[in-house]
Amino acid sequence: MENICVIGLGYVGLPVALAISKKFNTIGYDINKKRLFDLKRKIDSNNEFSKKDFLKKKISFTSNYRDLKRCNFFIVCVPTPITINNIPNLSFVNKSVSLLAKLVKKGDIIVLESTVYPGITEKFAKKLSSKVKLNNNKDFFTCYSPERINPGDNSKKLKNIKKVFAINTNNKRILNKIKKIYNLISKKIIFSKKIAEAETAKAIENTQRDLNIALYNELLILSDKMNLNFNEVIRLASSKWNFLKFKPGLVGGHCLPVDPYYLSYIASKNNFKMKVALAGRTVNNNMKNFVLQKFYNYIKNKKIKKNSSILLVGLTYKYGVADLRNSLNLEIFKQIKKEFKKTRYFDPFINEKDNFNKSENLKNYKTVIFLSYGEKFLNLFKRLKKIKVNIIDPFKYYEKF
């Protein structure tokens, strides 16, 4: 019988653990005591799962590695951020090696799901092999299956997406075991024997999206400077059959602002300087300044005083999630609040002290600035429009309403 351990219970690890625990005994491991305390009470502070999602699951949660001794299938879902200098930070992956060195035995399978650059899974396996004195792909098996979690998107849940799985073996017993477990996560598994190619594929998935959003952001700025209707420009351009449609906006979270640096880093280690991959980063990071300039120009033209109440709509990095990692929305909020002390925000997906209370009178706000787009925000926009409150819509999300 398989006993599963999922290491790291964030936006990636928890969905994986809950999916597998429908059938297999599963232990969720994390070092975040507050996270574990909540999960044991069937509370997901990321707001992706409700209490009913924990019911009828063979799952427990722990921070004690001794509880993992009986596990024989390990799935690593730890963060892979970047440093302040935009260098890949693999400290959590390395800590996972140290943890697994206390646990791995013959016949065990380890799957790395964290986003890495090509070559890391192999290094991971070599480090582990030297620590446990066992041979990878013979005594134990190390695989790579890049996460494809899209928080806040109900149409892209795990069961609905294709899952890449890379393992360098022809061992049918091991392959059948993997299929049996991973089919609980996704019915659409795409197998590859080249782990480095799967690692690269993951890195470019988000890099190409970052680049396309950057192009749209530049087109938005150009339209703004030329006094053109951006939405009309895109409507006309999208009438061509092969036009790719994206939305401009603030790019944050754990993937898009990070993955291009992983790709560029390994390219530099192979004596190749990527000229395009990081181009989107400069543009997208600078959109914070674009929004702030819009705000200050508007405030100046409208002669709005520093003691006025300002409302910012959308604080997390995107609509529908509670994730504040790399949120340019949050940075903008902090910057405005330094000068306009009565600045608050509206974001129903988090619960913080400066959050807008629905019972408040919207007319008290001199200016409302929209940084995200979604149904709840659109409803607020329509309310504001009726009572004629000053609205700043820098990304033209609501121009057509």
CATH topology of the largest domain: Rossmann fold
What is the end-to-end distance? 57 Å
Instruction: Give the total of domains.
Output: 3
Tell me the major beta sheet: 6 strands, parallel
Q: Which H/E pattern describes the elements?
A: EHEHEEHEHEEHEHHHHHEHEEHE
The chain-level structural class is alpha/beta
- In percent, how much strand structure appears in the residues? 5-15%
| CATH H level, superfamily name of the largest domain | NAD(P)-binding Rossmann-like Domain
Percent of residues in helices comes to: 25-40%
Please state the overall shape, judged from the principal axes of the Cα atoms. Answer: globular
How would you state the average pLDDT, rounded?
94
User: How many beta strands in the DSSP annotation?
Assistant: 12
Unreliable stretches (pLDDT < 50, length at least 5) are: none
Q: What is the strand arrangement across the widest sheet?
A: 3-2-1-4-5-6
Alpha carbon gyration radius: 23 Å
The CATH C-level name of the largest domain is Alpha Beta
Helical run tally: 12
Name given to the CATH architecture of the largest domain: 3-Layer(aba) Sandwich
